[in-house]
Amino acid sequence: MRRITAVLLLMILLFSAASAPAEDFLLGVAPEPSDITPSFRSEEPRDGEPDDSYWDTPMNLDDEEAIWKMLTLPITVADIDMNKQMVIYSQPDESSEGIGMLTGQSQGVHVLETLDNGWTKIETYSTSFHDSKVKNFNAFVTGYVPTKKLKTVEVNQNYGIVIDKLTQRLYLFKDGHLETSLAVSTGKYNPSAKKQQPYNETRSGEYLIIYTKTGALIDDESGMVCNYALKFNAADYIHEVPHRKNNDGSKNYRGFEEILGSRASHGCIRVQAKQNRAGYSMSVLSNLIKKRQDKNCVKLVIWEDYQGRQVKIPDDDTPLYYNPKGGSKYHSQDNCVNIKKRYLPLTEFPYGELDEAPYNKLTPCPYCVPSPRKAVLEEINKVHMESSPGEVMSVYNEIINGKKKK
Q: pLDDT value at position 194?
């Protein structure tokens, strides 16, 4: 009898687990499946089938197996100091034109051909900064570097991270599966600014989180503090969304947290401070990376928001939540961590009514990161049908050339 009862209990538990609603990993906004790869701008012929590297893997979160394989493959990097860069040349000759910059130890390249003359043909995104020898910001380039300055290294097999500039989200993969998602802000290049700063655009590409002992980045002039900073590209870090200290010593995220989910930084990647429903935040992520089982560096890849990529627009019956007793935000979950317990659970309403009263004045919660309004997502898709916002050099050159003509 006990055995029959145990079997029945096991069946009930298995049925409950199978029918339980899946965790919403893609909070806020998710990318539509796409065949577009990071090497979208490559003019190099692919002999036979595409490889499984970052460069030839489609930017498609629906294919977990392909993403995980890409995140755990070895990476080829420049064997120079992690704080230095080397020039990528247009020809296998140091007297030829420099067309891009490559950061030491952390930035990955796609090896196309190893020549007999000591040079290797590669493709990658140029990681030029404002003071780099070659100023070609976030441009996809194909060129040459000395073979002796390249090495291939193994990567962490427990974790991998995808940053999507299209959705402004971080996707954490763990042991072969998408574990959770967090809101981010990548770099913002404002072409209408008086001082042109195209180097603010976060550089796309394949990286290693190479240095994990930085702690906090502090700007004494502005008072900004960025905790849990992890280096992935010379002067670029992934870190917690900035805060300033209140008079009582508490953290004030105002002005930074509410714009998560949109470009805002000077090139670093800002990550939400509050824990999401799955219990993840930048502090938790930082701790995982530092205490990983496999001591090889965690791979972090950044997807470019190329023309043709699109975001998903939620179905009208997708549930959202709000506090009818004076709440000013709408939420992706009925137990948002930012809401006092006496107001929980929150009241459900459908996404399709978000622009109708009384929901039309609500703003998205920066902690549980619900989907933006349909008009916002439609505008994102419209922009990406006509342009690639991360390709800043064409805009920059047009502005500079216009000023020279004047």
A: 85
Q: Give strand pairing partners of 171.
A: 162, 181
Listed in sequence order, the residues at least 6 apart from 60 whose beta carbon sits closer than 8 Å to its beta carbon are 31, 33, 34, 35, 66, 67
- pLDDT value for 17: 35
Tokens representing residue 152 in the block = 């291939």
Q: Are 68 and 177 in contact (CB under 8 A)?
A: yes
Please give the angle made by the CA atoms of 25, 237 and 242, to the nearest 5 degrees.
75
Return d(Cα 300, Cα 67) in angstroms, integer. 12
**What does the pLDDT look like over 61-74, one tens digit per residue?**
999 999 999 999 99
- Could you tell me the two tokens for 177? 């599966």
Going from the N-terminus, what domains does the chain have, and what CATH number goes with each? 75-153 (2.30.30.40), 158-303 (2.40.440.10), 319-370 (no CATH)
How many Å apart are CA 80 and CA 66, to the nearest integer? 30
- Rounded Cα gap, residues 314 and 346, in angstroms: 20
Encoded amino acid at 142, one letter: T
> Assign residue 223 a region: left if phi > 0, alpha if psi is -120 to 50, beta otherwise?
left
Section 310-338 average pLDDT: 93
Distance (Å, whole) CA 24 – CA 260: 18
Indicate the average pLDDT of the chain: 90
Q: How far apart are CA 311 and CA 31, in angstroms?
A: 4
Residue 310 sits at φ, ψ, to 5 deg, of -140, 155
Q: What is the distance between the alpha carbons of residues 151 and 191, in angstroms, rounded to a whole number?
A: 37
Residues in the chain: 406
Give the Cα separation of 304 and 299 in Å (integer): 16
> Measured between alpha carbons, how far is 369 from 183 in angstroms, rounded to an integer?
7
237 phi/psi in degrees, rounded to 5: -130, 155
Terminal alpha carbon distance of the chain = 92
